[in-house]
Each structure stands twice: as C-alpha cells, then as structure tokens.
C-alpha cells in the first residue's frame, strides 16, 4: 500500500495517522485474557487468506471499554503494531461540531482515507460522543449532528465486505451503556472487550513494563520496591502507574542521582495520589468557592453516616481544612466482630455516592469538580465487589477476584447489574440528602464558620433537623 508520508500534510487535522505504531502486546501488562483475545484477531488479520479458506473471518469492529487511562489506546496501537498495519485515529468528540453535516462528512473522510491504505486499522476514541443512543437526552446539544455521524459510521461499516478484513475499526469508550445498540449489532462492533482497572498483580506487571528503561540499584531492589508500590496503588490505572515511575525518574535526575530509590518512588506516589490535593492545613489559603464545596461535601458525608450508622466504624469528626479528593471525615478504629449483610454492602455504596450527589445537587451537573471525582469510582468499585465476590446478587455464586477473570458475556452481565445498583444508590442517596437538606445546610454552616465539627455536634444536628418527606426509592 502507499506510504503515509504525505498524509499528515494534506489531510484533515482531526485524523492522526501512523505508518506503523511500533507498539506490541508486550507493552500492555495485566489482564492477560484481553491480549489472548486480541492476539487471535491479529492472527486472523495477518493470515487473512489462510483463515478465509477455513471460513474464519476477522470481526469488522472491536469495542474496548473501561475507565480512562487503562490502556485502550495502547491496545488498539498494539493490534496495529503486531499486525504491521497503518493506524488511523480520530476522536469522537472532534466529529461533532456546530455546523450541520460536519460529523457525517468527517466520518466519511476518515473511512475514505483509511480505505486507500487498506488493510489498516481505524481507531475511534470516545466513540460515545458520536455513537450514544438515538432519541436519548440531548446533553450539550448537537443531537441531530451526532445522529448523522452515527448513521455514517454504520453505513461505512456495513459497506465492508464480510469476507475480507480490509479495515478493522476499533472503538473505545468508558460508557458502553450509553452507546446506541445499533453499533453493537452483528457485523459492527460485535467484539466487546472490557478493559478494567488492574489487579494487584496486574499493577506489578504494569510497573515492570514501565521500569524497563529505568535504573535501580539492583534487580532485587527494583522488585521489592515495585511490589511495595503495587500494594499501595489500589484503584490506580496503568496511566497513573506509568506516571509514578516517570515522575520518580525525574526526581532522581533532579537530585543528580543515578538510581531510583524508595524515597523518590514514595514521593512520586504521593504526588500522583494527590494530583489535585495540596495537603495544606491552612484554611485561609483555600479559595472560598472550594471551601463551600468542601463544606457541602463533608456535610453530605456526615448526614449519610448518621442515616446509615456503622457501629463498628463510628465517625469522630470532619473539617474543611484540607483539600483532598476524598472525604476529610475521620473514623475511630474498627471494633468488635464485623458481620456484614447484603444491606450493609448496599448502604456503603449509597454512602459512597454522597460527595457526587451533593455537588451535583448544589452546583449543577455541568459544574462538578474534582472534590467529588473519586466518589463515583469508589461506589462503583464497592458495587462490583458485592456482585463479584459475595454471591449475594443475581450475578450468581461464583467468586471472581478480578474483573479480568470474567469472560465477555459475564462482563456485560456485571456491567448491567452494577448500573442497576448504582442507579439505586444515587437515587437513594439523593432522596436522603433531600430529606435531610436542612441538616446538610446546618452542618455546612458550622463547617464554614468553625472549620471543623465533631461527631456529637453532627448527631445533634441530624436528630433535631426537620425532615422533608420523600417518595420511597425502589431497589
Ligand atoms: P485509555 O486509552 O484507556 O485512556 P491509554 O492507552 O491512553 O488509556 O493509556 C495511557 C498510557 O498509560 C499508555 O500509553 C501506557 O503507557 C500506560 N498504560 C495504561 N494501561 C497500561 C497497561 N495495562 N500496561 C502498560 N501500560 C499501560
């Protein structure tokens, strides 16, 4: 096929093209089953003829879904790299413009450009921007535009021959539930692969990949240090883990040292954890708007903690003196025998939603900030844990340590159930916060006035607050 040399100059800016990505499956660590599945696709792409003779065809579309930073782009590039095919990438959000007809024409342009270099790979990141459900709420406008773009993608994919893999389209999204079902039909994105957060061993493997070009005192020390980092980085994505190592490398160079040691790794880990956190203990330096948001967040967490009291883990006090992406609520040590029922799990999911629900309620959905960003991911993680590891839900009794252990069909089932639990949790949480709105306001006032509030005061306000009756929330 022609070389891509001139492509960049003459073509639309919204497409990026690479002759070869140079990325391989070795660059992606953890979640081995994903690689196994994609390796099979690469085998078919490379030996197209042979497989065709056996009646095996390459899928036309693969959808990778999961949180940002988990390596979806990396995997798409690895498929291109391993198959030795050119890589065309575009972002769904760039298709949608204010001018009518632009989305469809950009999609057309992308496919036409790619076709002339076939066989090749097309990667559409954030495909939900263009491929979300038709007739759904039109958030941010551009509904008709999106619809035309989506239809154009469908037309293009339907136009590929069933029997030859001229172009493989890879889509990425972090929301599979909002995608138009037409996209997921047979002959379109019918291979759906969940790319989740790495397990502890996955994190270690990712750290190992990104430590390949870094210097440590010894192999032994490197292993011990990375094990430690892996233990401390629950919830981290591959991108964040990579950042930890890069940052540690920079810190090491700045100190004119030759090898990365524990000190640099821990400092960099701390920075990564607190991307948004300053850890300042000085209330005076926290901007007023942020302080108000923090106060509401802490008040909401406090109200939920009273509504669903946890006798084993009582709260002691909270404050607005530090800016963290997690609540400032302090708890006493665990006590007694912990005996968890299903309702306890569900309640903890509801409680975890409080920072996000209150921020949305008070400041509006388009005006959310990082101070509630971790909340939804904690809640979703807790729901996942209930579904995968307790046998208490419709998911069934099997125990899965990692999402990575799930076959795709079970992944879809997990996604559906988790969406269900999250819907209930968010609704229940908003209902509690509306019922106790007056308590939320009073606790917020105390926090803004004094900077902190202890458990007795919180309980006092909670018990005395007038309540506003709410409709029951159906599970
Ligand atoms: P996404 O497309 O899911 O948002 P990216 O592929 O852009 O994520 O990830 C950003 C970077 O993070 C990658 O280029 C890679 O360096 C690193 N990374 C993410 N996940 C992994 C992983 N599982 N193994 C190795 N590196 C990873």
What's the helix and strand layout?
Blueprint: H1 7-10, E1 16-18, H2 32-46, H3 48-53, E2 61-65, H4 72-83, E3 87-91, H5 92-95, H6 102-115, E4 120-125, H7 128-131, H8 143-159, E5 167-173, E6 189-194, H9 200-210, H10 219-232, H11 238-254, H12 262-273, H13 288-307, E7 315-319, E8 330-331, H14 342-352, H15 354-363, H16 373-389, H17 408-435, H18 437-450, E9 452-454, H19 455-464
Parallel strand pairs: 2-5, 2-6, 3-4, 4-5
Antiparallel strand pairs: 1-3, 7-8, 7-9
The protein binds adenosine-5'-diphosphate.
Key features of this structure:
alpha/beta, 3-stranded antiparallel β-sheet, binds adenosine-5'-diphosphate
Could you explain how this protein is built, in words?
With about 475 residues, the protein is α/β, with parallel strands linked by helices. It has 19 helices and 9 strands. It has helices at about 5-10, 30-45, 50-55, 70-85, 90-95, 100-115, 130, 145-160, 200-210, 220-230, 240-255, 260-275, 290-305, 340-350, 355-365, 375-390, 410-435, 435-450, 455-465, and strands at about 15-20, 60-65, 85-90, 120-125, 165-175, 190-195, 315-320, 330, 450-455. α13 crosses α18 and α18 runs antiparallel to α19 (about 455-465). The protein is globular. The structure holds adenosine-5'-diphosphate. Adenosine-5'-diphosphate binds near residues 28, 198 and 242.
Tally of individual helices: 19
Cα shape: globular
Low-confidence stretches: 275-283
Distance between the termini: 56 Å
Q: How would you describe the oligomerization state of the chains in this entry?
A: single chain
Give the fraction of residues assigned to helices: 40-55%
Mean pLDDT: 85
Q: Tally of extended strands? A: 9
Structural class: alpha/beta
The Rg value, from CA coordinates, equals: 25 Å
Keywords: ATP-binding, Chloroplast, Hydrolase, Membrane, Nucleotide-binding, Plastid, Protease, Transit peptide, Transmembrane, Transmembrane helix
Protein name: AAA+ ATPase domain-containing protein
Family: Belongs to the AAA ATPase family.
GO molecular function: ATP binding; ATP hydrolysis activity; ATP-dependent peptidase activity; metalloendopeptidase activity
């Amino acid at each position: 096929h022609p070389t891509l040399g001139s492509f960049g100059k003459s073509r639309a800016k919204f497409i990026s093209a690479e002759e070869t990505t140079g990325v391989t499956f070795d660059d992606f660590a953890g979640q081995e089953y994903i690689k196994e599945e994609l390796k099979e696709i690469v085998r078919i792409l490379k030996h197209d003829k042979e497989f065709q003779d056996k009646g095996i065809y390459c899928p036309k579309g693969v959808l990778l879904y999961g949180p940002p930073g988990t390596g979806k782009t990396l995997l798409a590039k690895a498929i291109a790299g391993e198959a030795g095919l050119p890589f065309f990438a575009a972002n769904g959000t760039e298709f949608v413009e204010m001018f009518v007809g632009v989305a469809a024409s950009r999609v057309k342009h992308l496919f036409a450009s790619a076709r002339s270099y076939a066989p090749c790979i097309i990667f559409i990141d954030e495909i939900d921007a263009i491929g979300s459900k038709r007739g759904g709420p039109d958030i941010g406008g551009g509904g008709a535009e999106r619809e035309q773009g989506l239809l154009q993608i469908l037309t293009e994919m339907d136009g590929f021959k069933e029997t030859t893999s001229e172009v493989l389209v890879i889509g990425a999204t972090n929301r599979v539930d909002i995608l138009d079902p037409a996209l997921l039909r047979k002959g379109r994105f019918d291979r759906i692969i969940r790319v989740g957060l790495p397990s502890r061993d996955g994190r270690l493997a990712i750290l190992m990949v990104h430590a390949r070009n870094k210097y440590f005192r010894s192999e032994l020390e490197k292993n011990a240090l990375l094990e430690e980092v892996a233990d401390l980085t629950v919830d981290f994505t591959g991108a964040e883990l990579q950042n930890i190592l890069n940052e540690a490398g920079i810190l090491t160079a700045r100190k004119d040292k030759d090898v990365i040691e524990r000190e640099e790794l821990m400092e960099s880990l701390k920075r990564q954890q607190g991307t948004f956190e300053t850890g300042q203990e000085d209330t005076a330096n926290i901007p007023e708007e942020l302080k108000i948001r923090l106060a509401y967040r802490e008040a909401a967490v406090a109200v939920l903690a009273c509504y669903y009291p946890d006798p084993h883990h009582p709260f002691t006090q909270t404050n607005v003196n530090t800016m963290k992406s997690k609540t400032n609520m302090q708890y006493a040590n665990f006590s007694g025998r912990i005996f968890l029922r299903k309702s306890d799990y569900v309640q903890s999911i509801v409680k975890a939603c409080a920072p996000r629900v209150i921020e949305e309620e008070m400041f509006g959905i388009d005006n959310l900030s990082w101070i509630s960003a971790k909340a939804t991911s904690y809640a979703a993680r807790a729901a996942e844990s209930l579904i995968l590891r307790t046998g208490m839900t419709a998911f069934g009794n099997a125990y899965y340590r990692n999402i990575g252990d799930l076959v795709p069909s079970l992944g879809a089932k997990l996604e559906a159930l988790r969406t269900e639990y999250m819907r209930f949790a968010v609704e229940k949480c908003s209902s509690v916060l509306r019922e106790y709105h007056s308590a939320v306001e009073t606790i917020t006032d105390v926090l803004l006035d004094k900077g902190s509030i202890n458990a007795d005061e919180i309980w006092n306000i909670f018990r005395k607050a007038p309540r506003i009756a709410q409709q029951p929330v159906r599970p």
